[in-house]
Amino acid sequence: MKHLISLLFITVCLAACDSGPKSMEVTATAYTSSVRETDSTPFLAAWGNTLKPGMKSIAVSRDLLELGLTNNTKVKIKGLEGHYLVLVKMNKRWEKKIDIYMGTDVKKAREWGKKTVTIYWEEEAKP
Fold this sequence. Notes:
Shape: globular
Largest sheet: 6 strands, mixed, barrel
CATH class: Mainly Beta
CATH topology: Barwin-like endoglucanases
Strand order of the largest sheet: 1-5-2-4-3-6
CATH superfamily: RlpA-like domain
Number of strands: 6
Strand content: 25-35%
Mean pLDDT: 85
Helix content: 10-25%
Radius of gyration: 18 Å
């Protein structure tokens, strides 16, 4: 019985450890809704979401999808206010990278440049 209780405790702990706050250091660049930076439908995101200037959205490299950063995941970026929604997945060539959406403000995106930031998110508990 003692072993059964220990096994149950470990199972519950492992399930709890798989969910909760996560963090990671990533490279962050910025992008806008322009045909030059995206494609012929610059306001249509990879999962079918519609982007609008002013919204707080990010694109994530595909390796981050496996970590729970999927469509509509809320992300906090250290040093920036508010939460950003994951609405776009990037080309397969990128790793450990996010793109912060800057609407149609190309100057603001260029000023952002390329930085290393820490992101935080809640991974949904697995059933």
